[in-house]
Specification:
There is one protein chain. This protein is of the alpha+beta class. The protein has a single domain, classed as Roll (Thiol Ester Dehydrase, Chain A). The chain is 20% helix and 38% strand. It has a four-stranded antiparallel beta sheet with strand order 1-4-3-2, covered by helices on one side. Strand 2 and strand 3 form a beta hairpin. InterPro entries: ACOT13 (IPR039298), HotDog_dom_sf (IPR029069), Thioestr_dom (IPR006683). GO terms for molecular function: fatty acyl-CoA hydrolase activity. This is Thioesterase domain-containing protein. Belongs to the thioesterase PaaI family.
Length: 112
């Protein structure tokens, strides 16, 4: 991560961010994968899912080497839309670190 700052021409004197917390793209990727898995439990197997919205909230900094638990739940599931909420908590203290919310649009099965 520190090398990327140097490539972009940003001079920074702080150590790599990955020592203090997970990079945003790692959290976003995990939220997306966990959300898809959770949405697949309520959406028919033949329907395609389209990610319409993904929002993340960073509530607390967590060291990169701390084990975290991701809990996903279906907030709303309808004919065309499925909304999933994901919470990340530190395994040891159960302190909430990140929350994510994804909205999936269910693509109808084409009948030819």
């Amino acid at each position: 991560m520190y090398q990327l700052f140097n490539l972009w021409g940003l001079n920074s004197s702080f150590p790599p961010l990955s020592q203090f917390s997970l990079p945003f793209w790692v959290v976003a990727t995990i939220v997306e994968l966990v959300s898809i898995s959770c949405a697949r439990t309520v959406v028919a197997k033949g329907k395609e899912l389209f990610l319409g919205e993904l929002s993340l909230s960073y509530l607390s900094a967590a060291p990169a080497k701390v084990k975290a638990v991701a809990d996903a739940s279906v907030v709303r599931s309808g004919r065309n839309v499925t909304v999933i909420a994901v919470e990340f908590k530190m395994k040891k203290t159960r302190k909430l670190i990140y929350t994510g919310r994804t909205t999936f649009y269910n693509m109808p099965i084409a009948k030819l």
